[in-house]
From TrEMBL:
Classification lineage: Eukaryota, Metazoa, Chordata, Craniata, Vertebrata
SUPFAM superfamilies in alphabetical order: Immunoglobulin, MHC antigen-recognition domain
Domain of life: Eukaryota
Gene: LOC100026891
Signal peptide residue numbers: 1-23
Gene Ontology cellular component terms for the protein in this record: late endosome membrane; lysosomal membrane; MHC class II protein complex
Region (Disordered): 248-270
Pfam families: C1-set, MHC_II_alpha
Name this polypeptide is given: HLA class II histocompatibility antigen, DM alpha chain
Family: Belongs to the MHC class II family.
Keyword annotations of the record: Disulfide bond, Glycoprotein, Membrane, Signal, Transmembrane, Transmembrane helix
Membrane-protein topology: Single-pass type I membrane protein
Amino acid sequence: MGPEQSLGAPLFLLLLQASVLLSLPWEDTPGLTSFLGNSLHNYTFSHTFFCQNEAPMVSLSEAFGGDQLFSFDFSKNSRVPRLPEFAPWAGDQSDLQAIDRDKQLCQELQKALSNFLEGQIPEARGNPVAEVFTQEPLEFGKPNTLICFISNLFPPNIMVTWQHDGEPVTGSSPVFLSAVDGLGFQAFSYLNFTPSSTDIFTCRVSREGNLFSTIAFWGKVLSPEACAPWGRGGKVDEHLWRRSPLPFSSHPGLQQSPQGLSFPFPTSLP
């Protein structure tokens, strides 16, 4: 019996366990069902586990109608609300045992499937696409929040850093990862700030071991020549601030974001 055949029965049993866990009644999460109320007839609530060999090793994301509500901090055994208005429902701990079972099952499946498929199919990777925009309508001098939205993300292991006028910025939120249709992922990072007319913020998305990062700009609209890796001495358009998305560029490596431009950069650039 070859290795593929010998793994068949264990994989079947693991998948059977998964189907049983996925069929658990909603009563296992009373806090969430109380929050969602009768809307379950019209919307979808997703409780998505994923595990991998890279950080984060295991993650849980919960979304309602496609919008992420919570991630889960496994070091503290608690939910983390993506937005402050979700905080009142983040304290529910009635399903911690179910979450622990899901974690163990996910890791067992990941280990078994990795051994089974190693050398059989190539690893799939997506090039992240980033956009930066404000949470509230832009008013100079009024506190606001910058949102860095990252899509086309697979596998879900990234590092997100912020810069203001070329200098590193601290105090951003943790990166919130969530699953989307098509077995991909998206991510959000938040930065509180008070905008001024001279600001240029950058959100840099990188992966360990990759030679390139994706960078999205927000602020004075930059020409491609001003920030492209092949020419950094271009002009900056001082007068134009945008609140709505720009059309995507036809350049294969360049995407326009709501407040500027987003494209791959060598990680060695400052």
